[in-house]
Amino acid sequence: MDTTLPLPFLPSVDLSTPPTADADSEFTSKQLSYLGCIFFSANDSNIDQLLGFLQGHVSIEAYVDVSDITSTEDIVTILDSGASKVFATAGTQLNVLEKYGDRVIPILAAEEAHPTLPYANGVLVRAGDIQSTTLKLEILTHHKVAPVFLTTPPSSPQEFVTLATESSAISIIPSNILTISGQSKIPVPALIASSWTSDRPDELIPTVVTDERGIALGLVYSSQESLAESLKTGTGVYQSRKRGLWYKGATSGDTQELLRVSLDCDQDCLKFVVRQKGRGFCHLPQSTCFGELHGIAKLEKTLISRKESAPEGSYTARLFSDEKLLRAKIMEEAEELCDATTKENIAFEVADLIYFALAKAVGAGVSVSDIERSLDKKSRKVKRRQGDAKGQWAEKEGISTNGTNGNSKSPEVKEIVKEAASVPKSADDNAGLKNGRITMRRYNAATTSPEDLKAVLQRPSQKSTEMIMGIVNPIIKEVREGGDKALLSYTHKFENATSLTSPVLKAPYPQSLMNLAPETIAAIDTSFENIRKFHAAQKEDKPLQVETMPGIICSRFSRPIERVGLYVPGGTAVLPSTALMLGVPAMVAGCKTIVLASPPRADGSITPEIVYVAHKVGAESIVLAGGAQAVAAMAYGTESVSKVDKILGPGNQFVTAAKMYVSNDTNAGVSIDMPAGPSEVLVIADKEANPAFVASDLLSQAEHGVDSQVILIAVDLSEKELAAIEDELHKQATALPRVDIVRGAIEHSVTLVVKDIEEAMKLSNEYAPEHLILQLKNAAEVVPLVENAGSVFIGEWTPESVGDYSAGVNHSLPTYGYAKQYSGVNLGSFTKHITSSNLTAQGLRNVGGAVMQLAKVEELEAHRRAVSIRLQYMDDNGI
Ligand SMILES: NC(=O)c1ccc[n+]([C@@H]2O[C@H](COP(=O)([O-])OP(=O)(O)OC[C@H]3O[C@@H](n4cnc5c(N)ncnc54)[C@H](O)[C@@H]3O)[C@@H](O)[C@H]2O)c1
Ligand SMILES: N[C@H](CO)Cc1c[nH]c[nH+]1
After folding, report:
1. What range defines the domain where residue 354 resides?
2. Which atom of ligand 2 is nearest to 573's Cα?
3. Per-residue CA distances from 46 to 15, 64, 81, 169, 172 (Å)
């Protein structure tokens, strides 16, 4: 796409009656396209038509008068859609469009006597009467304003075209008065010829012939007559210095399709852009008069010829027919390019990538010039995109792509929601810091609007479902289809455990894999026993039985789920305690097959504590894999991973998304426990609370991950009491080994100051925390007010971490507000209930009438008869 005006005039097109392809018309739409530029007058009602034209004609330079458009946004859309320039009225329009620089040209109205603006980008003069227009053009010429565009009034177009030519202005001429050779209209060849200057005695004009990409094919000469012939036939026609009109290719067959005609900057050379057919332009056996093509042009030519007919065994031909191979190669080369470092290497890899990318383009009929046109169009965009990497690619490179939508929130709150995505990348990153201290933001509920309070209590923004699913879906598909091999390859990739050769460790586990310090064994054993006791107590001693009517016994009894898969997270921290929290109730419930899954360490081994727990709960195997791949393996089964009926356990977003996916796939036939994501805690503290205890509880969950959130609701605390907690938080956090993770979590954690416990509980119930800690004087008395929470920790001597490990309650709990509808893991998570009915003959007599009547209402006769046949039998047999 040229940026200078290609010709000394601009054809204007009326969008309601554009020129047609009709060969009989004096100037067809095709001929118009050879000129390469068009002027439009846009208004509020034809804007859609204009945008449609811009969309479909990316190689045409569009000049658009937008003075009749009322909305600035619409004008910006016109620029964004690729219009070369817009002409705007002085004043408001120009002021708001100023930032678009030389793509906006002012309009000088006909009635405006003297041009007063500097017109640095040129000007459009609306023709008035001939004298005033002449005067304006003289003034503009005197002030060296360029380019000057001049409209031609329908009454005397030729007069104004002449005026424009004399003053080097560009006349805007309605395309319906243009012709190639007609008498009553304005002939285009003559118009072009009148503005070129030839310094040759025969007055021929040198003509550079190029291909679509601007590669010079050769030099020829043109006359007004040959130009007219070329425009008429749409082919390359020139003026031979010896033999008159020269129809290129007439004898050799190497013809040319005309694409564009333009003049150079000082109008002493024509340029013809053509699509060369046959062997090439030159009379010698080469593509151009300056030798053979090279680089990308040569590659494109080769690819096109391979597409048309390829020699036996051609690799390029294979690429055209094997879509998967081409896709894989493009991705492989892109990755190699990303990894290249030296200049030589980068050039090498870019070349490889271009080869495969062009194979894709040529295979789809896309030329390099199509690509260049797309590039040019993109360069015209004014509504810039943020340019963030998408989903799986951002993930792969560890780029945070979290977004925010804080539309109606106050600026301060908007800031919080935005910053919820930030993660400290190093010690220098100031996430979570305020004046150099690790501090949570503080809000007073009395002075914060309910809407802002809601925003403040929003969880850190998660990656969009679409983005996560974009990563997880292919993983699941590959593991389902590829089994062990695919599972192993993901473990090699994500866990770096490249030496691992089998994805499963089967029981019995060798003692060498469970070597633990005696105190660790004792701690696990203590926790095991408490968890076992608490979950065993949840067992129903006997089936529930109710006689609903005389002779009708309804019962409900439970049975263990036969095969369960337990996911034990192992990304940012290895959590053997989660193995206990899932394994012990599975064992107590009597599940026959217990499969554990956890990401292995880089050397392929699994934490001995997890192996020990697997051994204690009687797990049949440990899947040495994490993330979506582990979930998929347990859901569908592989050669060595046993398929399960239910998957339980917390995990990051990939794990949670995969659990959701497989539970929705009827082919998997698997259910899940709940969405259990990033850990969170809400502490309600009053004046009695020990600031050090409060801070320690908050930090115990903040250290889980940067996506964790901790909330303090301070009941009627004074500034001094709040400061004491904040001091403790900073002091304790700074001393933690995981201080960077803590800072990431603190960045989007808050303190809310409220007046009383009722207000605190209202906010807490609305937030529905995973863990609720009551650091209150009469903590136990507040429990009846709890409506939504995963697990509650009552009083100053109950830190949340006792629940995480050893008290006996389960730590696998609903997060993200799901405590409103889900329970944490409990014995019931590993069982299902079956009901039974048992009727005597009397029972059937008692209820039969109701059954038969309802079956009749539903018109289900067989249902009705199943009762009536029995009742009849009883009657017949005296029962
Ligand atoms: N709610 C609860 O009850 C509870 C209990 C314990 C832990 N948790 C939470 O569980 C989470 C554990 O998360 P984690 O990351 O530490 O361990 P994880 O085991 O859940 O996830 C690690 C796995 O994620 C996969 N993964 C990582 N990056 C990936 C990528 N770019 N693409 C695809 N897969 C990728 C890898 O396979 C890796 O093995 C934490 O948020 C923690 O707070 C919650
Ligand atoms: N607090 C986590 C549940 O959100 C569980 C856990 C494991 N280890 C320590 N804590």
Report:
1. 295-379
2. 8
3. 7, 12, 15, 28, 19
